[in-house]
Amino acid sequence: MTLTDYDTALVTGASAGIGAAVVADLCGRGLTVHAVARREDRLAELAAATGCSTHVLDVRDTEAIDDLFGSLDIDVLINNAGVGRAIQSLVGADPDDIDQTIDTNVTAALHAVRAVLPSMIERGVGHVVNIGSVAGLYPMSSGVYGASKGAIHFLSTNLRLELAGTGIRVTEICPGRVRTEFYDAAIDDPDLRDAMKETGITEITSEDVAAAIAYALDAPWYVNVARIELQPTEQTYGGMQVTPIQGRDQDQ
Ligand SMILES: NC(=O)c1ccc[n+]([C@@H]2O[C@H](COP(=O)([O-])OP(=O)(O)OC[C@H]3O[C@@H](n4cnc5c(N)ncnc54)[C@H](OP(=O)(O)O)[C@@H]3O)[C@@H](O)[C@H]2O)c1
Prior knowledge:
Blueprint: E1 8-12, H1 17-28, E2 32-37, H2 40-50, E3 53-56, H3 62-69, E4 76-79, H4 95-123, E5 127-131, H5 143-162, E6 169-175, H6 182-186, H7 190-197, H8 206-218, E7 227-230
Parallel strand pairs: 1-2, 1-4, 2-3, 4-5, 5-6, 6-7
The structure holds NADP nicotinamide-adenine-dinucleotide phosphate.
């Protein structure tokens, strides 16, 4: 299997950022692309620019996922819709933000895969691309978001095992900082949002992520690109944090 062997793709979270860039890239490569998101106006603009088909849908609506995803013979699923509500901390997080992040990033992603797999297995063709994050692989002091992307990591690795012998490929994409609207949707407080957004580094672009996905899709059938991590050159992870407990007697 290579990109030229895939006919149809479905991209969730297609109205902005990484999803929109992937739709444009796959349409440009001649695939029939189904673009899924909640914002109708954004999807209409994308359709006008790329020729994709659009579906206004909240991925937290499991019935809608079953109806749409289950009715299309999808070769490539790009499981991309995601939010970073409560990204700054679990401590003090709004319970609704926790639910929104888990429901969108994890539960909906599971249902999307479940809905497309029967057709993929029956036809013997399929590629599931899950958009994870470096936050799902390394501690980044983000309990809610990290937990959601950690789930995507183990969804991806376990799917590889579950699908052994079917020929269906699974790829996990783990970006670091990508310049998108992600933080605008994640954080309401303008000062905190600006502090999170303005890193002073050159972030990677949605098009860089789309190119990484195309690399995985374009590999020959016997190559499963299992995981790609891509980060800005100016971003890294790790190091041991040293933080004294507040109020502790240092002589103890
Ligand atoms: N930006 C980064 O630094 C970064 C880094 C690592 C991983 N990621 C991951 O990359 C993916 C894409 O994020 P992005 O950076 O491109 O952010 P973005 O620009 O905010 O795009 C998020 C997309 O998800 C869609 N979405 C959110 N909730 C949805 C829902 N309930 N139903 C349907 N669609 C929904 C949004 O569309 P509507 O609002 O129109 O529904 C939008 O199209 C996410 O999974 C994110 O966690 C991002």
